[in-house]
From TrEMBL, chain A:
<protein>
    <recommendedName>
        <fullName>Vacuolar protein sorting-associated protein 33B</fullName>
    </recommendedName>
</protein>
<comment type="similarity">
    <text>Belongs to the STXBP/unc-18/SEC1 family.</text>
</comment>
<dbReference type="InterPro" id="IPR027482">
    <property type="entry name" value="Sec1-like_dom2"/>
</dbReference>
<dbReference type="GO" id="GO:0016192">
    <property type="term" value="P:vesicle-mediated transport"/>
</dbReference>
<keyword id="KW-0458">Lysosome</keyword>
<dbReference type="InterPro" id="IPR043155">
    <property type="entry name" value="VPS33_dom3b"/>
</dbReference>
<dbReference type="InterPro" id="IPR036045">
    <property type="entry name" value="Sec1-like_sf"/>
</dbReference>
<keyword id="KW-0968">Cytoplasmic vesicle</keyword>
<dbReference type="InterPro" id="IPR043127">
    <property type="entry name" value="Sec-1-like_dom3a"/>
</dbReference>
TrEMBL record, chain B:
<feature type="compositionally biased region" description="Polar residues">
    <location>
        <begin position="68"/>
        <end position="82"/>
    </location>
</feature>
<protein>
    <recommendedName>
        <fullName>Spermatogenesis-defective protein 39 homolog</fullName>
    </recommendedName>
</protein>
<keyword id="KW-0967">Endosome</keyword>
<dbReference type="GO" id="GO:0005769">
    <property type="term" value="C:early endosome"/>
</dbReference>
<dbReference type="InterPro" id="IPR038132">
    <property type="entry name" value="Vps16_C_sf"/>
</dbReference>
<dbReference type="GO" id="GO:0005770">
    <property type="term" value="C:late endosome"/>
</dbReference>
<dbReference type="InterPro" id="IPR006925">
    <property type="entry name" value="Vps16_C"/>
</dbReference>
<dbReference type="Pfam" id="PF04840">
    <property type="entry name" value="Vps16_C"/>
</dbReference>
<dbReference type="GO" id="GO:0099023">
    <property type="term" value="C:vesicle tethering complex"/>
</dbReference>
Amino acid sequence: MAFPHRPDAPELPDFSMLKRLARDQLIYLLEQLPGKKDLFIEADLMSPLDRIANVSILKQHEVDKLYKVENKPALSSNEQLCFLVRPRIKNMRYIASLVNADKLAGRTRKYKVIFSPQKFHACEMVLEEEGVYGDVDFVTALCSQVVYEGLVDDTFRIKCGSVDFGPEVTSSDRSLKVLLNAEDKVFNEIRNEHFSNVFGFLSQKARNLQAQYDRRRGMDIKQMKNFVSQELKGLKQEHRLLSVHIGACESIMKKKTKQDFQELIKTEHALLEGFNIRESTSYIEEHIDRQVSPIESLRLMCLLSLTENGLIPKDYRSLKTQYLQSYGPEHLLTFSNLRRAGLLTEQAPGDTLTAVESKVSKLVTDKAAGKITDAFSSLAKRSNFRAISKKLNLIPRVDGEYDLKVPRDMAYVFSGAYVPLSCRLIEQVLERRSWQGLDEVVRLLNCSELAFTDMTKEDKASSESLRLILVVFLGGCTFSEISALRFLGREKGYRFIFLTTAVTNSARLMEAMSEVKA
Amino acid sequence: MNRTKGDEEEYWNSSKFKAFTFDDEDDELSQLKESKRAVNSLRDFVDDEDDDDLERVSWSGEPVGSISWSIKETAGNSGSSQEGREQLKSRNSFSTYAQLPKPTSTYSLSSFFRGRTRPGSFQSLSDALSDVPAKSYAPELGRPKGEYRDYSNDWSPSDTVWRLRKGKVCSLERFRSLQDKLRLLEEAVSVHDGNVITAVLIFLKRTLSKEILFRELEVRQVALRHLIHFLKEIGDQKLLLDLFRFLDRTEELALSHYCEHLNIQDPEKRKEFLKTCIGLPFSAEDSAHIQDHYTLLERQIIIEANDRHLESAGQTEIFRKHPRKASILNMPLVTTLFYSCFYHYTEAEGTFSSPVNLKKTFKIPDKQYVLTALAARAKLRAWHDVDALFTTKNWLGYTKKRAPIGFHRVVEILHKNSAPVQILQEYVNLVEDVDTKLNLATKFKCHDVVIDTCRDLKDRQQLLAYRSKVDKGSAEEEKIDAILNSSQIRWKN
């Protein structure tokens, strides 16, 4: 039930303005060092820089050569050096050593350092309590993604909107870097789709393409000329995009069947539902024994811990020992990090699920508990996943088959098993146009610091108009959540603009926690 | 959760999973392959037209004109790499990056900053900038020099924090008294800006004694967390340990100290360092892990030295046939066990490199041991060893095969290592669950097992279906026919 476009709906802001602003700032900074200069860029910043300025623009501002910041001595012979780096200690040390090396060699040069961003990201401060949005929903971040864009991110890693496809995808001996956005017409249509729908779509498109090309057989000169001038370019573009995405799908399929994806998803769903825990635990144990993947094993353990409110001590000890034996004893440190972040914890006696549930339900029915009680704050770092999930109906009850071809709710992003918490919250708040009726939920989420802004004033428009909504994710969000909200938007007639500090997935989250750099 | 067995069956078979499984994997894959064929067949047609408009892409995959492409070019040119020169040769003209949007508005942003407006539309931003002699400035950056100097002495903590947030240069020296410093810190914490808090902490670290700093931070959790994070980033291990000691956070103290081992590359030195970690105040379990880590590295050093010697002597067959690809140092225990099962399988318990010794020393559970030994012997195609792994003699002297890991896993590992069908067949037969057995047998073409199982299940339809899959005139076909014609079996379908 999609809402048609209304002519009086507010315009979407022009986001290319943001790009131009950034570019202008950069240009200004570059011009502060007039004359020819070499630019050293930190690896992480190369992709973002590509999005806002390209090499010809840099050259116009007298940037001569481009280098990557790495652990090698700089070969630049230029008199002026410019560094574009993140404000990290190790970058400072790099620059300092370069400058000192120059000094030792008796060389004088001019240096300029440009920091980006000026402030640290909220997502770097994982320990921060300020990041209450960031702490709340780890479960979504830990699930395997099954919408196309999420799968591409999980399999190939999307960086700054672009992805590197290796030779196995491009069916040639080259790699290809592809920018994935709405301009890629093929991608735009499949990005939010459940993976099972993607093949059908691509094969349909391939057949259409073939039919289009075949038309040229019956053409006369005039028609052919017309065809070449009007349609050919578009078709060639489509052909290129199609072959890339088909290649990507093939690659994803190969990896998935190798990994026994089916078993993996079954286990994830069982964990989300709180069902068959022993079997899931032995699946994880086997996963570790076989040394399948340190990141994947960790991810599954965290998912178990979050959904079950911590592992039972026996399991915690035995899985930890096995993990250290399979992947290395230094991961002792990783476990300590995860424990502190609340991602992988051990149940203390009295912390079993039933005990917690009764504690929590007692608090919620106690009307006098307007403030956070001691008992509740002791649960501060514990996940109340089951309680929240029940209250918000995050695990949809389904009679009969869950139709992925025509999804009925946002849970399709996880094959019908789970609605991401953030998406459900947004849906509820938008429907009620306030936080009314959600007090219990708020308390369960531990959001003592949530600010309630009054939303009623702006809603002069009738309830049917296309509401424009800005969603801000502090601490990161996943492609699955974005797809789910797009679905919501289509259903309810909202238009969303997403602003996030980072796009994340389970692998990035686990790598950040892992003390040992692979 | 309390659910009955019946519920469980229902659950696993429920359509929720059917919704997305790879059961129809063959269909989907063939659909995909068909699409691919369709697309590829058009490739010739597409490629022989002149493709001026398409984005040019370099050999390494980056779009020509992008930052990463340019960096690779530079690196290629400065070295003497073949690739670099090839890139130079194959490069045509320098084309603009296709995705760059052309601004279509009447005014460009930079014209605002110039302080006068420019009518008319621009061709491109670069045109606009190269035309104008006046210096352009972006917001926030073009303040008069005066602002950079600290004129006033009267800035309060909140003013100072505000300036710090804006990234302005700001001297904190005037906060001399402890009270002033703490007020400044509290102000920084209240605005929730990590960068500012860190800036203030750097100042406090420099101007306060260790004891006072620690004492004050002990009661300020947020600032404390920042300091710990900062000390870790900057690598000030000594101060960090002092801090933990002061706070009596003994476990973190121990972990922080242990963490340092990652910076020690030399194995002997690392081993010595690990030894110093053993007595530290870890939890009971963690102490055991640390002890194991030390023992493991100790063993690995011995094994490594020994094996390197053997390998270079060239007399040992296993090392000649399968030269080592990497050193065993710092590998996880399971990897070490695999290595030991691969290269030192037959050694007696007394040696450091024998698998049995490893099992005993580190109390490796049977499951893990059998799994690893199986993987190693299967890789070497040592089927007799595999056999021996699972064969036990019961008290009557009869041999029987048992496995702590489930025979379906055994079959998978054997298959992965291209075990001959007879061997596979034997182990498929041992799989307990009938459905799994049938699936595996079909997947791996263990005809006899399929046939026998269908017969045992009295499933005629399935047997008939399987008949069409075997080769015409083969022994299997004959066998199926014999069974189908047998009057002794009471078929259920």
